[in-house]
Design a protein that fits this description.
The complex is a heterodimer of chains A (98) and B (283). Chain A is of the alpha+beta class and 98 residues long. Chain A contains 3 helices and 4 strands; from the N terminus they run βαββαβα. Chain B has a single domain, classed as Rossmann fold. Classes of the chains: A alpha+beta (98), B alpha/beta (283). Chains A and B meet through α1, α2 and α3 of A and α1, α6 and α8 of B.
């Protein structure tokens, strides 16, 4: 984001990063998550899911700010985001456990 | 009381609300773009956020699209006869006052066939939370005109436009004696979740009206795609907490007022019953 003047606390603000997960077969393609994502990282995918709808796909992976808005507006329980740092830590533990 | 089961691992795989929904019944029957799913998910988030064990909750619903929610929630729930969700819930509350009773139903069920039950439960100040999904139409039966359909809206039974004025639900709830009255739309999900959370913890009759799109039976006949309805919610609504419910008509041309209208304390039905009947019967 471009600022016309640098805010005093830019150095202190930490932007959280999230990882979006999509449960494709629950999606009914209403497009609410795509329309209301604040940084517009979702779009309709070209393929169909089990029920014949186009589920969303992530266009800019790694830019999610973990605001959870897609998760709370989704009427289908089909999309959620988790904190990227936590997801990475979980991945590490599962790899070391296996 | 038992505690809620802890999810396994730090980041369990699956949707964060999967422990509160009957996942084997998902995907649910609601149409693409229907707002009921969002209200339901917001209600589940609010239940989760109260940190009250799930076995202290019960959900009651009547008949209609919205009323299917009772079949998807993984707590004790009751799908009752048409319009009779509130009397059923009143019975549960009188028999077991410790339970948090949530009535989740639609505008047709609560205000058309169940209108009298609503006003009397509000008059007695039954300690329950009523969530009304207002989609402005009878959705499940094929789009007939409802008590909440805005004037001039086209439905299957009013092809030239609805000649009647709709109910002002917050005013009705306030005038009947409800002690917590709020209105939100499905676009204001965070406010809605906070309001439901507050309503569950509030002692007394809490009523939350949620405006939700019905793309098939309302939107299709009134040239409104679901995203158009959500844009209407964003542009033609005014958030005004503590507003007078008398001016809270659903009129998108003038702007629909959202927010918490009423939050007051009144003796609940159980308090009054305790003070007048149970005490005297012991003598």
């Amino acid at each position: 984001m471009a600022f016309w003047r640098q805010p005093l606390d830019t150095q202190e603000i930490q932007i959280t990063r999230g990882e979006v997960s999509i449960i494709e077969d629950r999606c009914k393609g209403c497009g609410y998550c795509i329309e209301f994502c604040p940084i517009h990282i979702l779009t309709f995918s070209d393929h169909f899911n089990k029920k014949g709808y186009h589920p969303p796909k992530i266009t800019k992976a790694g830019e999610c700010v973990n605001c959870h808005y897609c998760e709370i507006i989704c009427p289908e329980f089909a999309i959620y985001s988790v904190n990227a740092a936590d997801a990475a830590a979980e991945m590490d533990t599962s790899i070391s456990a296996s | 009381m038992t505690k809620n089961p802890k999810p396994l691992g730090k980041n369990p795989v699956g949707h964060p609300l999967d422990d509160l929904i009957r996942t084997e019944r998902i995907p649910h029957i609601w149409c693409s773009g229907c707002g009921i799913g969002t209200v339901f998910s917001s209600c589940l988030s609010a239940i989760k956020a109260t940190e009250i064990p799930y076995n202290e909750f019960t959900m009651v619903s009547g008949i209609g699209c919205s009323a299917r929610a009772a079949g998807y929630i993984k707590v004790d729930s009751f799908h009752t006869t048409h319009g009779r969700a509130i009397p059923f819930a009143s019975g549960i509350k009188m028999a077991k006052p410790d339970l948090n009773v949530i009535v989740f139903s639609g505008d047709g069920d609560l205000f058309a066939i169940g209108g009298n039950h609503f006003i009397h439960a509000a008059r007695r100040n039954m300690d329950m939370t009523v969530i009304c999904v207002n989609n402005l139409i009878y959705g499940m039966t094929g789009g007939q005109v409802a008590a909440t359909t805005p004037a001039n809206a086209k439905t299957t039974t009013t092809p030239f436009g609805n000649p009647d004025a709709p109910f002002n639900l917050p005013l009705l709830a306030y005038a009947s004696g409800a002690s917590y009255v709020a209105r939100w739309t499905i676009l204001h999900v965070r406010d809605l979740t906070n309001a439901i959370n507050e309503a569950i913890r509030h002692r007394g009759f809490s009523f939350i009206e949620v405006l939700a799109p019905c793309p098939i039976n309302y939107g299709r006949r009134n040239k409104e795609k679901p995203l158009d309805t959500l844009k209407l919610y964003r542009e033609n609504t005014i958030i005004k907490n503590g507003a007078d419910p008398a001016i809270a008509d659903v009129d998108f041309d003038r702007g629909v007022i959202l927010g918490t209208f009423i939050n007051r304390d009144r003796s609940t039905c159980d308090d009054m019953y305790e003070a007048t009947c149970r005490r005297n019967s012991e003598d």
